Amino acid sequence: MDADPGLFGPSSVTWQVHGDPMMWVAGVRALYLQALHPRAVRGVLQNSDFRNDAWGRLMRTANFVGTITYGTSEAAEKAGARIRKIHSMLKATDPATGERYPVDEPELLLWVHCAEIDSYVQVLRRSGYPLSDAAADRYIDEHRVAARLVGLDPADVPASREELAAYFEKVRPELAAGDEAREVDDFLQHPPAPWPLIPARELLWRRVAHLAYAALPPYAHDLYGRSVPPQDRVARQLRAAGAVLRCVPERVRWQLPPKHIIRAMSRLGPGSRPAPYKVDRGLAILDGPGEGAGRGDDGGCGTTWRTPG
Known about the structure:
Blueprint: H1 13-17, H2 23-34, H3 38-45, H4 54-70, H5 73-88, E1 91-93, E2 100-102, H6 106-126, H7 133-142, H8 144-149, H9 161-171, H10 179-189, H11 198-214, H12 218-224, H13 231-245, H14 250-253, H15 260-268, H16 278-287
Antiparallel strand pairs: 1-2
């Protein structure tokens, strides 16, 4: 009863949705989208061994998201402090002008944050996860906490779908698919892999990457210079992928590194287990009486989820 629930807690929307396996697809979509901001992607490529440490970088990102979601408040704050310290020491150079600028400029941190949150919301909803408009707004608002951890003022961060859409409309003129974005695109399509893993890369990874790319907004496809796939087909593919991935038992998915959900349940008890039907219930708890809670199954294979709202 006295265990620390962390920065979000089991009643939050974030706690429920971050346990969904489609978050991996959403994360790759976020990389594609983030690469379209020239100053932001330049900061990544000039300060990391992206191609030679792709898996390590992916796992570090997953560990950070898992820590701030399911870890204790102390662990989350420490993870945020580490990120801020690292970013404070890094700079990037504009090859056209020679300008040197810090990678932790607020506008760059905001772009990375918004591209990530938008990707999570879009992929989850389009893949069949029961996330109502109200729950999506709550999720976006909750993640101003995550924005604070990386160094942003929460007051400057979009708190709803409407504010997030307005932000993207404002920033679109700054986006471009330059050489750095092309490098990220090429890497995501053909990541290096040890020869024993090449068949798995061709069978699994490329499908994930193609689906993540297809889930981008039309303006992103235009910038990358490829045709915009029919959105109804993309929706069907996302729902099919969600159905397949959600058939993998939780006891298998959650035992994979970094095991944050397992540790959170050990700390807080089995009642803290993330589940889609708890999204509505969490809204009712947070908003008080009168916000009827939804009811559904736990998301196992073959489950039909009621989409709230």
